[in-house]
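Human
Can I borrow your eye for a moment on a structure tokenisation matter? Give me a protein, with the fold worked out from its sequence. Write it directly below this note and I will take it from there.

Assistant
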Amino acid sequence: MKIKKFISLSLIGLLLFLSSGCDWLKKKTTTTTNPEVITLNYYKLFDDEDVFTPILQKFQSKYPHIRINYKKFNDFDEYNSLILNEMAEGEGPDIFSVQNTWIAKNTKKLTPAKLTLITPELAEQAFVDVAAKDVLHYDQKDGLKKMFGVPLTVDTLALYYNKSHFEDALPEKGAPSATWEGLKEDVYRLTKKDNSFERFFRSGIALGRSENISRSVDILYLMMLQYKVDFYNKDYNEAAFAKATGIPPTTPAADALDLYTSFALQSNKNYSWNKYIASESNPEKELDAFVSGKLSMFVSYSYAYEQVMDLIKTKRAAGIDTIKETSVRVAPAPQVFDPKVSPDKRTAYANYFVEVVSRTSKHPDEAWLFLSFLASKESNQHYFDKTHKPTSRRDLIEEQAKEPIYGVFVNQIGYAESFAIYDRELYIDVFKQAIDAVIATGNPTSAIKNAERLISDLLPGKGFIPLPPPKPPVNN
């Protein structure tokens, strides 16, 4: 006999995150004597099964009739292709992970949480703003706003730097500037040019190019958000980021592109990066130069710290000189406007995975039961302890912010932002073309207008984000 209900859903939302350690499930379950054993297939990228083993064991001891079949993937493109193909055939996983920017376009492929489980208001209380905005959308079936996924973490771009280089070149500061303009001067003082093939004995920062910087387009997104760029029109059927604003009129997206590419143009004082310092074919790209001591700063996510530490060990084992582990530090993402004096809020760029329930799942209630357990305070803290991926929960920020390295990323999630993306790979291609065009011509305005046209051509005429239903006419 199949179980119809596990919990009293009408009361569960009231219990969500309202007390320390409280999860969505602190309500007696209603089960039959011999419930049917249900298996939920859970697909996830990158995280080893042992990360979740204690959580799975606790869940299955509480709900022995639900088994979780966990499957890890390492190849992002293969993972996406498999899920879409399986869903097209009415199969696929019950639960899987997607990028935060993917959800808005694909709500039809997902089963949202019932409003009796969690309301938008409670989701906004539990999760930081960017996470709540990324998972709350209008259900196209009934026009109601619902939660379409559980964000376990929110990662952001931050600035990695070599402390020893700053002590050498900028001892009066010892750390990077808080603004991009200040960072330009830091880069000028850190950079050491020579007559080598790379033209640099030491590069100040890895910025400005598209092909040999791991997160080049994400960094451009960060700068565009900091320049307050609106990416789309109100109907989400046309790109609008190349529009001029203000008096006198300026094009914020072009200003962001100009800032990004300025570090790779020889005519600029802050020139510090070219195609020779890091190879496009090298999977470590700028991290290799940083670990070798040839680079002072780069911009990346929290997981880059472990990548740097692993690369140091690998190189040393091969007899190659590296920087000291203690020299690796992390600072918040630089800002366009000085946070000490500007009334404008700081901005960080958020990029992370969200756990969702497939429309093809035959057991959506059980799947959401598991996700609610996974999102509990205890489970989320365990996930941070194992992965160091910053929390999405408001009630864990204070504790996780104390961590010496990863605390920088935790402190940024309150002012992190994102925007919906229609096609991730195509957007990357378009903005890489824009970066390359500026390197070739020095004209960011023309490049950003061309990027806007290319993305507008991709967008469907009806828009790609479910909008709220129209308000009924008011009778006079």
